[in-house]
Amino acid sequence: MSSFKTNSGFWITIISICVTVSQSQIVCVIEPLKLELDTGSSGMLTCSCQGTTATDEMWWCQDNQECDKQAAIEADPANFLTSSAFNNGLLVGVLTVLDAQSRHSGLYYCKTKDGGSFDASIQVSDGGVYKPVNETEGGGEEVIKEVVVMSSKNPEIIASEKTPVTTDAKSGGLHQAPYIQMTPSENQVITTNEDIEVECSVINAEATDITWYKEKEQLHTGGSYEIYGNTLTVKSPGSDQAGTYSCQAIVQNKNESALQLERFITLGEPITIKATESVKYTEGEIARVVCIATSSPLPTVSWFLDGLNITNVIAQGNTSHYQEVGREDGPHGWKSTLRVLDLSFADAGLYNCSAFNGVVHEYRTIDLKVQDRMAAVWPFLGIVGECTFLIIVILIHEKCTEENYEEDEYNEETIKINKKHDPINDKNDVRDREN
């Protein structure tokens, strides 16, 4: 009996240690675990991490579980967009494939500065759904099998601070740990006059009733919300209903301790971006590129140039060349002004303004043109040159006219003198007088 008590105490201690350790771990979920795309199409992976802080960072890597931030996928407006935001205790990052190609197929890892790596797969096929084909041992009939990708580092659970998490899927621990299954599991875009239904179910445990929250405020049936059983219905959602929702449940663990499970989903409006197509500045000036993004939840704005994440450069404290000033523009708008100091011809190009509200991405491209310092002087010099040429022509013309006039006067005077002293003319004059 004493041996049993000793063993029981030992295992309870081990479980408690595991619970304590799991509480300090960062737990991430990537949705979907497998993203199937056709060539030229677009798709999105969302990585949601709990246990992070507002100063934590997230980046994405392809086919490299151990990659550091320097080896991360660079945001390329032609192929990828990446962004992350910290909201209500969750660090949420999004990887968007804009123009899927076969080279984009593979495993993608979302990485956090203070945590591990969590993976999902992207498969790009030339039309249709990707299914691997295996031959039988006889080499004859083909057998088609669906592939289900399950990451050993990606449990289907987001845990609160009090929730123990089993992360070893190979040992079966993933299926034994209680978790909340949410349907739909992806964040939802608000469509005018269309209700949104979200259902939460507790798996692998008996639970108390599901409790619903918007941000940190508990929801009840009434107004725009209807709660029936485990289902929340948001009626004709608009800007006021956009935000992060969660369902919570209390369950009993095997060691008879109470656990709190929680799952999140964000409802967001489409994003509208206002920006001029192009701006022009002179070399050496301070360029200002403005982008206004409007949505609910309030979007965050990031700037890119030819794969360079300017927003990250500024966040790292390097503001010698780039500066960003942001402020609210109305209740659901964010106005971001990117300043480019000491402008040079190397700064010319297509600047990408990318906005993310936790649900959807939107971006606009602004063409920054840089003109030569002398660009404004050349027209003036041209005008001065033309005026100088005209003055020279006029002076030459007047000079020539004056010389011709003097020559004409000289000729007339000469003729008069000659006539006066001409003998023939004198004789003619005498004859004329005699007659």
Describe, in short, the structure shown.
The chain is an alpha+beta fold.
Strand content: 35-45%
Give the strand tally.
28
Biggest β-sheet: count, sense, barrel? 5 strands, mixed
Radius of gyration: 40 Å
The overall pLDDT average reads 75
The separation of the N and C termini measures 179 Å
Give helix % range. 10-25%
Instruction: Give the spatial strand order of the biggest sheet.
Output: 12-19-18-14-15
Low-confidence stretches: 1-24, 127-175
Outline type: elongated
Number of helices: 5
Structural class by sheet pairing and helices: alpha+beta
Secondary-structure map:
Layout: H1 2-24, E1 27-31, E2 34-38, E3 43-50, E4 58-62, E5 80-87, E6 90-97, E7 106-112, E8 117-125, E9 133-135, E10 142-144, H2 173-176, E11 179-183, E12 188-189, E13 196-203, E14 211-214, E15 217-218, E16 225-228, E17 231-234, E18 243-252, E19 258-268, E20 272-274, E21 278-282, E22 287-294, E23 300-305, E24 308-309, H3 310-315, E25 322-328, E26 333-340, E27 349-356, E28 361-371, H4 377-420, H5 423-434
Parallel strand pairs: 2-8, 12-19, 21-28
Antiparallel strand pairs: 1-3, 3-6, 4-7, 5-6, 7-8, 9-10, 11-13, 13-17, 14-15, 14-18, 16-17, 18-19, 20-22, 22-26, 23-24, 23-27, 25-26, 27-28
What does this structure look like?
The protein has five helices and 28 strands. It is α+β, with helices and mostly antiparallel strands and 435 residues long. It has helices at residues 2-24, 173-176, 310-315, 377-420, 423-434; strands at 27-31, 34-38, 43-50, 58-62, 80-87, 90-97, 106-112, 117-125, 133-135, 142-144, 179-183, 188-189, 196-203, 211-214, 217-218, 225-228, 231-234, 243-252, 258-268, 272-274, 278-282, 287-294, 300-305, 308-309, 322-328, 333-340, 349-356, 361-371. It starts with a helix and ends with a helix. The strands form seven sheets. A five-stranded mixed β-sheet has the order 12-19-18-14-15, with no helix packed on it.
